[in-house]
Design brief:
By secondary structure, chain A is an alpha/beta fold. Chain A is built from 16 helices and twelve strands.
């Protein structure tokens, strides 16, 4: 009888453990829209509605998620954070100093990321980004360095991460990415044809956008053609490679949302938010097949630009549809200006030379987008400053060209949108959650609570 | 036997009804921070932490609530709403045209408010605001008018509302408020002594702030002394009057948050958000006594000002503590300027005359708040414009005085805060919820969903 009772107790115990386990998320997606504040999301939705001549919003897929939290983003040493400190918070659940890659604020202690915890647990891991793979946001998931600028050291840690899938941008500061990765044990692919052939049979694979800029980032969505691979393509491929019976953790960064916001380029922001949303629908498709085992989180590391749906001179009016006239990113406009600078002296430079290009690609001068005297003067002045400046692009994808900035600011303001800074802000960010355990995401939380919840839901740590 | 079965059925039916009823919220608080965006909240919290020399936030009480949603605010006819259309959405669950007080967008059909539904159900109703009681936000709960400017018609509807408690601002556009209300069957009190004597024995009572401005609004919290009554005082008194066994509905508006944001006065915004939070603690105290029967919602009708925690020239830096130097609202600064204009001609006017007052009350010129050449020039120029303008204050509490605006903008920017407009914006607002049924408030919703949820939770309609 005593023995029977013991067996009974063990049985109950086992059952309760199994019951707990069956409630854990086996497949975890963490989507980070870099710099994507509430306004970046809402402006995209308002623009989509405006295209249909509707007042209101045309919802993105991730904003339909059933659960939502709002998270503060401040770093240990500065209220306005950067992608390194905010990424460390999202990857490890710890506040740290700005510029720091998954180390504590004294920069002496390494902090384990949820991606590394997942790997240790036997799950597969994938890291995807539209910018360079050794940029801060992807780096915090596999590297530990006191400075985000230590690009080579970060890339070296990628090799030893043993993660299963890397996709998107290349490695900045590495002379021969292909050789570096191949020697390090990764299969490297950066052609569209090669991309298509990657399959679930591949292990330790690194797929790169076939077209990348000088920073090794993929192109802005607004500039992409059928020659590019999209964030959605990469996410779908990543799921294919990672899907296995032990589960997986996947981080997907919409990194160019931040870069577009740094130059106050609303048109490019909107297209990259839409591309980010499309990538999320790949995760939702996977969720639909495994609803009880999948968790999807969509958040941001910080807000960039102090972006707002209202501009003083427009008062209570908006005209979001005007952004439809923008055909290219400011990065492409910059290239045009660089060419012009090579063939013209400061004395020769005339705004009229560039106005047809500006009209064609940003709509300025078209009906409803007429340029007033003050705006013409602003453009002329910025061209003058432009011609005095021999340098072209600043680093970090930030446009130094005053003419591009002026074009964008004029167009955005005519659409009823405004910005307060070219930097990040301290504005808290949204957290949208769907799937197993997602009800933990509610109320007004801190960014460090996000990975803590994920650890609990996925049984990590 | 048949008879016994019938009795049994009735008993079961009654039990199930009671079970449903016991899950309904009997006491409903709806707090509306007019113009209070996420940044107005977060800036207040960041400022409070900065006062303690901490980087981060010192949480307000309502941001600790367990449930949260984010709500879009657009009107039927304009993306950027106003307090009339947004208020109608919050009070009735219907989108309408801007300027409209609880009527549909054709302005022909009256829309019943949740306050009126509560009254019909036998609950007591209280309406509280820091601005005039016939302003749009309070009006939408008791009146139905095609234009928010129809102040007399709105006030007339207040008399026939039969609501139990009105508190805060006076009635704008009514010659003798006391006579108007007394004849209309309301006990009217506008002294501090009288206020203290109001008790649960009073029925149909209207208490007004003893000190009100030309718009019949209570003073900004930053300007209040012990001669004033606070929003918290009024809320506490309202609970005392309304508390009864049939339950109550109470709407409390922090109206001056919007007015301060319209003039981009961060110092006044913060003090009014704190006063609003303090009023909410009165509801939380009541909740603690009736946790299963009380629902508290804290939201906003729209964002005002395009307020952001980051300013271009400050780049990644913030210095929130500098706002501590602000001692008065811009409304009081305006009065000082008006006095100056009466005693000086345009030729006589010198910035130096006003600088000591500006230094004393906004800190400009103190260590850490030194004025640079460009800032001095801005102040001088705005004084010049000031002196050409014979008019003083614009209506709607909006400062027309360019000098006040310039002072505020300089101080806010030095603190690392920025604004994009003097109008409302289309930025979605927060919804914090606590108590019975509050778990319905989650995800990304529309402002019309808020009263729909309340109707369901409180069993209205």
């Amino acid at each position: 009888m005593k023995k029977f009772f013991l067996v009974f107790l063990i049985a109950i115990f086992t059952l309760s453990i199994n019951a707990q386990d069956s409630q854990k998320a086996k497949y975890v997606f963490l989507f980070i829209g870099d710099g994507m504040g509430l306004v970046h999301i809402n402006a995209t939705e308002a623009y989509r509605a405006a295209l249909k001549d509707k007042i209101g919003i045309d919802k993105l897929n991730f904003t339909k998620f059933p659960n939502l939290a709002v998270a503060t983003t401040y770093a240990a040493d500065r209220y306005i954070t950067d992608s390194a400190a905010a990424g460390t918070a999202l990857a490890t659940g710890n506040k740290t100093a700005v510029e720091t890659i998954s180390m504590d604020y004294t920069r002496t202690k390494k902090l384990k990321s949820i991606a590394q915890m997942a790997k240790e647990k036997g799950m597969k891991v994938g890291i995807i980004t539209t910018v360079n793979m050794n940029d801060a946001t992807p780096a915090v998931f596999y590297a530990h360095q006191p400075e985000r600028s230590m690009l080579k050291e970060i890339a070296q840690e990628l090799l030893t991460s043993n993660f299963d899938f890397f996709g998107g941008g290349g490695l900045k500061g590495i002379k021969n990415t292909s050789e570096f990765l191949t020697k390090g044990g990764y299969k490297y692919i950066d052609t569209k044809k090669g991309f298509k052939s990657v399959s679930s049979k591949d292990q330790k694979v690194y797929v790169s956008c076939p077209i990348r800029d000088e920073s090794e980032a993929c192109r802005y969505s607004i500039d992409q053609t059928s020659d590019d691979i999209t964030l959605s393509d990469i996410t779908k491929k990543g799921i294919e490679v990672l899907d296995n019976s032990n589960g997986f953790f996947m981080m997907v960064e919409g990194g160019k949302i931040d870069w577009a916001a740094h130059v106050n380029d609303a048109g490019a922001v909107i297209k990259d938010v839409e591309a980010f949303d499309k990538a999320i629908t790949e995760a939702v498709s996977f969720y639909n097949k495994h609803p009880k085992e999948t968790l999807i989180i969509v958040t941001a590391d910080h807000e960039t630009g102090g972006f707002t749906l209202g501009y003083a001179e427009m008062k209570y009016n908006s005209a979001f549809k005007k952004l439809k006239n923008q055909k290219i990113s400011l990065a492409v406009m910059d290239k045009k200006i660089d060419e012009y600078k090579k063939t013209h002296t400061a004395d020769q430079a005339k705004l009229e030379d560039l106005l047809p290009f500006i009209k064609k690609n940003f709509g300025l001068g078209l009906k409803g987008l007429e340029l007033n005297e003050w705006e013409i003067k602003s453009l002329e002045n910025s061209l003058k400053i432009e011609m005095m400046n021999k340098d072209s692009k600043a680093n970090y994808g930030k446009v130094s060209e005053p003419l591009s900035s002026t074009i964008s600011i004029i167009l955005d303001q005519k659409a009823g949108l405004a910005w307060t800074t070219f930097s990040h802000t301290g504005v808290p960010v949204m957290v949208f959650a769907k799937g197993q355990g997602s009800e933990l995401f509610k109320s007004y939380i801190d960014n460090t609570d996000i990975p803590k919840n994920i650890m609990q839901i996925a049984g990590l740590k």
